[in-house]
Structures are given as C-alpha cells and as structure tokens.
C-alpha cells in the first residue's frame, strides 16, 4: 500500500481492530462531503433565477402547499418540476421537516430566492442525510460483495471503499453545486448488488425506484433488461424460467403503479411525460463533452438538420454504441461482468444520446468507479485517469459556482491519499495517452488561469471548447478500451 491512506491504515493490521475500518472510512467520507458543503452553490446570490439550489428548494416548497395534480403544472417558468415522482415525494418529506423547523423557508411563492444561513445549513444536511440512507450503504454492501468475489485483503478493501466514496465529481456536484444525484446512484448500486446475487425482484424494485427518482437512470436500463433476460432464459439449450419472468414483470408493473398512483389520469400522465422528457430542449444543454456538442464546433448540426433528424441520428448512434454491452449482459450476467456492461452502456448514452447535460457524466462514472474493486493494475489506473478527466470536464460549471478552491483541494486530496497520480496502466500506449491528456489538461488550466495568450481573449468560449474537446477524446478512448475489456472479461 504505497500511499498515505495505506500507511495510515497499517495501524489496523491487527485483526481485532479491523472492524473499526468501515466506520473510519465512511465517517471520513461524510466529513469531506460536509466540508465541501461549506462553499458556494449553484446560483448563490445571483438573481433573478438563482440556480439549482433554488430549484431544489422550490420543489420542497410546492410539494408542501399544492396537491400532486398541480406539481407538474405550477408556474413552470420558475423552476418547474422536471423529475419523476420519487423526486417529488423525496422533496415532500424533506419539505415537511424543513417547514416544521421554519415555515418561512418554504412559504408558497414568498420564499423564492430565500438564502438564509440556516436554510443553507438545512439543505446541505438533507443532501448528507439522503446520501447516508441510500448511496453510502449501497456502496458499502457492494464493496463487501466485491471483497468476497476478488478475495481482497481487508486493508486493500478499505482503501478501495474510500476511493469510491470520495469520488470527486459526485462530491462536488451534490455537496457543492447542489443536487441529490447520490440517491439515484445509490438505488442503482443496490440494484447492481442484488442483480449480482441473482435476487431479481429486489433488483427490479431498486432500479425502477432509481428511474423514478431521476430519469437519467435510463442510461442503465438496456443492460439491466438484458441481464435479467439472461438470468431467466437461455438459447442453447432453450430454457425459460417463466416463474422468474412473471415475478420480475409483476414487480416492475406494481412498483411503477405505486409510484405513479397520484398521477393516474390521462392529462396528468401526459404532462408528467412532457416535463420529464424534454425533447424540445435539443441535443445538449450548456457545453458538454458529448459527440454532438464537441463536433458542433466544426459541423453545425442544428443548422444542417431538423430536431427530428437529430433525434434519429442520436438514437442510431446510441443503439450501436450500447449493443456490445447488452449482448454481453445477456451472455454473462455475472458479478464480474455486469459492472463493465453498465459502464460501457452508460458511456454510450452519455457520448451519443439526445439532450445530455454535463452533470450526466455521473452516470457512466458510477459503474466505472466501482471497477476500483479489483486487484488489476491497468483497470485501477484507467479508472483513476477517467475520473480525473471527468472532474476536469466539470470545471466550467464548478468555477461558475464559486467552488474553485474546493475543486482543487478535493482532487489533490483524492489522488494524493490513494496514490492515484502514480497509477499507471501496464501498456506503453495507454501510458502515453494518459500522460498526453494530463499534459493537455495542464496546459489549458495554466493558460486560462494566467492569461498567457491575451490575443485569444476575444474568444471567451475557447477554454470551454478546449475543455470539452479534450474530455470527449479521453471519454471515447476510455469507452473503447473499457468495451474491449468487458468483452474479454470472464
């Protein structure tokens, strides 16, 4: 364990003290998340619309004062609710608690733009509590499964658990920028955990819940569909487990109906679908390292093609990109292979699908980061590298939120503690790609920070374009490497 965290954990070489490791690692992760929350957030002090903090606060507000039939209709120009019902129920619970503490925080309409210190503290704590109830236990239980699968020593397992829990991008987006992505990701990891154990009914419940919390969980849906199909059917010899298929199908239908219960009217369902799937918003939102946004620098897609054509192009590209992972998930729905399949499929969605936001990189990063639970040097090195690249891709957003210091400290701490700066893949070509990308990232950061090229000041978006171009190239390279590795995994 040639890294600072490993040196610290040597104090637990004695087996009688190793039971403390889980509490130490999880507690440290919570402390770091809480520390990030001391900084800025999306839209802080920036009227008239503020940002994601106000959006989340507003949803706690409207779910308190309005019946469910109005949630997806009420004043859509002011952060109209655009996530599925489980997010709304989550907001309702948190809003009840907050309104009990201070009704002014979530008073209908009059609380818009409210930013008191007490409200900020409460909202930050709701993120930590949501993580503690979903994401942290999900990753912990998955790590125990991986520890048994790969026969990991206890200290190595604790290090890898810390590496995953302190993933910088999720830390900064949820606890800095301000969102509740950890709930969706936690439900997904629970689903993966149950799927690996062939417990298909709880896996289905968790995955449907993840989709009904945030619709972006659909990035994972093709793989879980084919994995469940692979667990319940076979072609050679022909065999179909009808009982298991019926149980899963019934579970999915009942879970969906329960979550949709207040909205089971034609007009309510139609409005919910319109809000949750915003096809009118275009191929991407803001600057994002997807194929369409990156290539748009050279090919003006929105000028050359209609929205309908672009949706077709995105659909075809996504179907082609995700097909290897679906085939492999059906052929080998095992604990070892499934994380690779989910990673490959969700990277294909992020790179090629319609209406991608920069924060959507969290979806492919989750199963990718779970690949840290291995003893393979190249896998760990490549996963560390792509996490750093994804973190770099979030710089324009996090800088805008006033999180520059947190951004720098967290990534340095993560790489230093776990020795990830020194992690190198075994093949020379991979090493050259990793080193070259880090050099390009460093050049962009230094040039932007110190204004070393004043003649380029007339191009204010240049550094953002450079950011997404470098990130996209790295994402594609990693996706190709990871897809090949998935197909070779036994």
UniProtKB/TrEMBL annotation:
EC number: 2.4.1.-
One Pfam family per UniProt: Alg6_Alg8
InterPro entries in alphabetical order: Glyco_trans_ALG6/ALG8
Enzyme class of the recorded protein, top EC level: transferase
Record has Membrane as a keyword: yes
Source organism, top-level taxon: Eukaryota
Span of the signal peptide: none
Annotated compartments: Endoplasmic reticulum membrane
Single GO cellular component term: endoplasmic reticulum membrane
Alphabetical list of PANTHER family matching this protein: DOLICHYL GLYCOSYLTRANSFERASE, DOLICHYL PYROPHOSPHATE MAN9GLCNAC2 ALPHA-1,3-GLUCOSYLTRANSFERASE
Family to which this protein belongs: Belongs to the ALG6/ALG8 glucosyltransferase family.
Protein name as it appears in the record: Alpha-1,3-glucosyltransferase
Organism of derivation: Wickerhamiella sorbophila
């Amino acid at each position: 364990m040639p890294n600072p965290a490993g040196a610290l954990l040597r104090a637990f070489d004695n087996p009688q003290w190793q039971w403390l490791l889980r509490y130490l690692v999880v507690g440290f992760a919570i402390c770091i998340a809480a520390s990030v929350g001391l900084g800025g957030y999306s839209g802080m002090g920036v009227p008239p619309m503020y940002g994601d903090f106000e959006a989340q606060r507003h949803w706690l507000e409207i779910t308190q004062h309005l019946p469910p039939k109005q949630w997806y209709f009420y004043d859509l120009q002011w952060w109209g609710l655009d996530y599925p019902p489980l997010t709304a129920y989550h907001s309702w619970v948190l809003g009840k608690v907050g309104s009990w503490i201070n009704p002014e925080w979530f008073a209908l309409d009059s609380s818009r733009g409210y930013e008191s210190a007490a409200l900020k503290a409460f909202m930050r704590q709701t993120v930590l509590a949501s993580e503690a109830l979903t994401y942290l236990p999900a990753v912990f239980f998955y790590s125990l499964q991986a520890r048994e699968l790969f026969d990991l020593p206890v200290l190595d397992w604790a290090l890898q658990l810390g590496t995953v829990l302190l993933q910088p991008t999720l830390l900064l987006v949820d606890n800095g920028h301000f969102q509740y992505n950890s709930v969706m990701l936690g439900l997904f990891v629970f689903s993966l955990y149950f799927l690996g154990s062939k417990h298909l009914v709880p896996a289905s419940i968790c995955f449907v819940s993840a989709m009904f919390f945030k619709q972006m969980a659909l990035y994972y849906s093709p793989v879980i569909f084919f994995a469940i199909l692979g667990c319940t059917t076979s072609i050679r010899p022909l065999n179909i487990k009808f009982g298991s298929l019926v149980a899963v199908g019934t579970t999915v239908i009942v879970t969906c109906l329960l979550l949709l219960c207040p909205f089971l009217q034609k007009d309510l369902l139609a409005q919910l679908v319109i809000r949750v799937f915003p096809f009118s918003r275009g191929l991407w939102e803001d600057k994002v390292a997807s194929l369409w946004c990156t290539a748009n620098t050279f090919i003006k897609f929105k000028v050359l093609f209609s929205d309908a054509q672009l949706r077709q192009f995105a659909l075809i590209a996504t179907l082609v990109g995700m097909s290897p992972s679906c085939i492999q998930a059906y052929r080998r729905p095992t604990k070892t292979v499934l994380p690779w399949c989910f990673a490959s499929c969700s990277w294909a969605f992020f790179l090629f699908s319609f209406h991608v936001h920069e924060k959507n990189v969290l979806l492919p990063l989750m199963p990718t980061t779970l690949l840290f639970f291995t003893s393979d040097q190249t896998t760990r090195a490549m996963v560390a590298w792509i996490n750093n690249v994804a973190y770099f891709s979030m710089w324009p957003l996090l800088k805008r939120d006033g999180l520059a210091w947190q951004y720098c400290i967290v990534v340095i701490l993560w790489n230093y503690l776990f020795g990830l700066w020194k992690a190198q893949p075994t093949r020379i070509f991979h090493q050259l790609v990793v080193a070259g990308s880090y050099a390009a990232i460093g050049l962009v950061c230094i040039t932007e920070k110190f204004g070393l090229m004043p003649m380029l000041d007339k191009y204010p978006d240049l550094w953002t374009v450079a950011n997404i171009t470098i990130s996209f190239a790295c994402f594609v390279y990693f996706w190709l490497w990871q897809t090949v590795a998935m197909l070779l995994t036994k």
